[in-house]
Amino acid sequence: MAFVQIRHLTKRYGQHRAALDDFSLDIAANEFVGIMGPSGVGKSTLLNIIATLKKPTSGTVFVAGQPVTKWRDAKAANFRRTQLGLMIQDFRLLPNLTIGDNIALPLTLLPPRPKDLAERVAQVATQFSLDPLLTRYPHQLSIGQQQRVAAARAIITKPSLILADEPTASLDSHAATTFLQHLAKLHHEAHTTTILVTHDAFTASFCDRIVFIKDGRFFAAVTSKGNQQQFFEQIVETAAISGGRWRDETIN
Ligand SMILES: Nc1ncnc2c1ncn2[C@@H]1O[C@H](COP(=O)(O)OP(=O)(O)OP(=O)(O)O)[C@@H](O)[C@H]1O
């Protein structure tokens, strides 16, 4: 059984055309899937529904066989806290906490405080090359470093599912590459399942499979055969035939 089963999802905002229109997809355990498509086709809506932050108009998302989109608030909140690692563009570190304390936050907000907290902070800091920065404060870090702190914070709970929405959008190409290398390495070491939304073909080339959405529906999928450059070219070609209004930097 697929780890994430997306079944006939439709989402309407008011009277507008459906943002998602009977969208279905299976994602295997330990798969690293990218969701791509032109602006406004429903990518963020899809991720927010999987994250239980938005309710679908109809359809269901199952995670590990559980109908998470049917759950009420408290159960959904518990799912987000214990199972999900959310990486979003607007990551908000707390300015008055050190980097170490920011990373530890998901484990210190509610008691009990894990006995191995320091080890866990050290471990995720190493995964994102943040070891020398743990006693600094957010304003002393570059945006790329801050984004890696947010990623470390997202994975310290050992989530089974990582959802990332344009996590490299505010980074320059060097910082974005570093971030994606860390994410891909983490993905393969920790055996998580990752769904990443992006409009950028280079970012997408770090994934195992790319699913293209068009007008709220499945359009196409391409799978990596191991060569990142070839996969990148395949992604660019599929993006080009999918049409729509892509952001400028997608296909260059
Ligand atoms: N809260 C909302 N209220 C009304 N319409 C919305 C809302 N959120 C999204 N939409 C509309 O739903 C459609 C899909 O939006 P969504 O943000 O999911 O697309 P996207 O593919 O992530 O776009 P982008 O790449 O530009 O971020 C768009 O037409 C958008 O205007």
Automatic annotation (TrEMBL):
A molecular function (GO) term: ATP binding
PROSITE patterns: ABC_TRANSPORTER_2
SUPFAM superfamilies named among the record's database cross-references: P-loop containing nucleoside triphosphate hydrolases (SSF52540)
Keywords from the named record: ATP-binding, Nucleotide-binding, Transport
Domain spans labelled ABC transporter: 4-240
Superkingdom, natural source: Bacteria
Protein name: ABC transporter ATP-binding protein
Organism, as annotated: Lacticaseibacillus suilingensis
Phylogenetic lineage: Bacteria, Bacillati, Bacillota, Bacilli, Lactobacillales
